[in-house]
UniProtKB/TrEMBL annotation:
Protein's cellular compartments: Cytoplasm
Name of the protein described by the UniProt record: 33 kDa chaperonin
Described purpose of this protein according to its UniProt entry: Redox regulated molecular chaperone. Protects both thermally unfolding and oxidatively damaged proteins from irreversible aggregation. Plays an important role in the bacterial defense system toward oxidative stress.
Species for this entry: Effusibacillus consociatus
PANTHER family: 33 KDA CHAPERONIN
Coiled-coil ranges from the UniProt annotation: none
C-alpha cells in the first residue's frame, strides 16, 4: 500500500474520521535523519498526526507542530499542508533507550514531559493561529487527543503507530483520528470505546494488510461515508534562495569570518538534510548585497 489519507464521515455527520498509512513517509524520515528506532517512532507518530492535520486544512494553508518535552530526543518539529506534503525533524535522532516495561519502543521516555505541544497554523490571515497543551503522556497519540479536546474543543480519539523492523527500517506506520461533533449520543460513544478496547493496535492491523478504511469501519457504528483520498509524501520546501536569505541575515562580519576560516559555508537543511555549499566568491556577492542595503 502506498501512503494516503482518507477522510470520512459517519453518524449523519456527527463524526469526522481520518485514516492513514504513512509507511513510506516515516521510512523516508528515518533514512534522511539516520534515526534510531525510538527516534523514528516518535518523529513518525508526530508526522503521521501532522499529515492528517494538514488534510484538515484548506487550499494553501499550512501548519507546524512542535513537541518540546524534557526528554533526550529534544524537540520534534513537523510541517504539513493540505496537499499531503509533510516534513519533520528532531533535535537528537540518535537517541537510544531500552524498550519500555511492556517491551515497546519508549517514545514517552524519548519525548519526556514537563513541556508543551504547540500547533501553529498559517491560515493566510494576518496572525497565525496558535494552540498549545501540556504534554500529558509523551506517547503522542494521547497528547494529540488532549490537544484537540482542550485547544480546539473537539473531543477526539487519536490512534497512531510506527512499527520498526528487525533491520531498523520502517515496517508499517499509520493511524486514525475520530472527532466527535455535537449531537453524538452516549450510546454511540460507548460503542466506539468498546471497539477501541477490542481491536489490535494500528500497526498490527496495518501489517496484516488491513486498510485505513477498514480500520475506520471496525471502530465506527453504522455506515461510514468515504470522501477524498489524498496521497501523502515527504516534501521539503527548502531551496538555495532561502538559505541565501539566512546567510544575509547573519550579517557581513559573520560571512567574512566564514570566508577566512572555512573558505566558504556549508548549510544543511534541518528538515531534509540536503546540503548547500556556498563558495568564498558566492559569500562575497552576498556581502556586497548586504552593504548595498
Ligand atoms: Zn530541506
Amino acid at each position: 500500500m502506498s501512503d494516503y489519507i482518507v477522510r470520512a464521515t459517519a453518524l449523519e455527520g456527527k463524526l469526522r474520521a481520518f485514516g492513514t498509512i504513512t509507511t513510506g513517509l516515516v521510512e523516508e524520515l528515518r533514512n534522511r535523519h539516520n534515526a534510531t528506532p525510538v527516534a523514528t517512532a516518535a518523529m513518525g507518530r508526530a508526522a503521521t498526526v501532522g499529515a492528517i492535520m494538514g488534510i484538515m486544512l484548506k487550499g494553501k494553508d499550512r501548519l507546524t507542530i512542535q513537541v518540546k518535552g524534557n526528554g533526550p530526543i529534544g524537540q520534534i518539529v513537523v510541517d504539513a499542508n493540505a496537499e499531503g506534503e509533510v516534513r519533520a525533524y528532531c533535535t537528537n535522532p540518535q537517541v537510544d533507550l531500552p524498550l519500555n516495561s511492556i517491551g515497546k519502543l519508549d517514545v514517552a521516555g524519548a519525548v519526556g514531559r514537563d513541556g508543551f505541544l504547540y500547533v501553529i497554523k498559517d491560515l493566510g490571515l494576518k496572525e497565525p493561529y496558535r494552540g498549545s497543551v501540556e504534554i500529558i503522556s509523551g506517547e503522542l497519540g494521547e497528547d494529540f487527543a488532549y490537544y484537540f479536546t482542550q485547544s480546539e474543543q473537539t473531543p477526539s480519539v487519536v490512534g497512531v503507530g510506527v512499527l520498526v523492523d528487525r533491520d531498523y527500517t520502517v515496517k508499517v506506520a499509520g493511524g486514525f483520528i475520530l472527532q466527535l461533533l455535537p449531537g453524538v449520543t452516549d450510546e454511540e460513544i460507548s460503542y466506539i470505546e468498546e471497539k477501541l478496547s477490542q481491536i489490535p493496535g494500528v500497526t498490527s492491523l496495518l501489517s496484516e494488510g488491513t486498510t485505513p478504511e477498514t480500520i475506520l469501519e471496525r471502530l465506527i457504528p453504522g455506515e461510514v461515508k468515504f470522501h477524498e483520498k489524498v496521497p501523502v509524501r515527504f516534501r521539503c520546501s527548502c531551496n538555495r534562495e532561502r538559505l541565501e536569505g539566512v546567510l544575509v541575515s547573519l550579517g557581513a562580519e559573520e560571512l567574512r569570518s566564514m570566508i577566512e576560516e572555512d573558505q566558504g559555508a556549508e548549510l544543511v537543511c534541518s528538515f531534509c538534510k540536503d546540503k548547500y555549499f556556498f563558495s568564498s566568491e558566492q559569500l562575497e556577492t552576498l556581502i556586497d548585497q548586504i552593504q548595498q542595503k
